[in-house]
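Tutorial, part two.
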Amino acid sequence: MRPTGQIVKVGWGPQPLNFSLDPLVQKAARIQGNFGHSYAIWEKVITLMACGKLDPTLLPGRKAPLAEWQVCFEEMASGAIVKAVLQPSMNPSS
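Running the prediction step on this input gives:
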């Protein structure tokens, strides 16, 4: 990370972090968290699903290896898909 850079953490992750934040403090980095939904949003989603206005099986429009992240981001930005699921390879040969 460059000095005065920024890290954004989206969603939840495994605990504990198992590393020191001191190097980030030394670089005067900005750390920001983002949690993308709330109880009110879940209520709306459940209501839309219950009345048939939302088919959750259509949301992940693409599953792709992590190497194809740029294509996925372009498809989401254009509106071609709503959500992409990026899957990091556990096997370097795959």
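The radius of gyration is 18 Å. In part three we will examine how such features are distributed along the chain.
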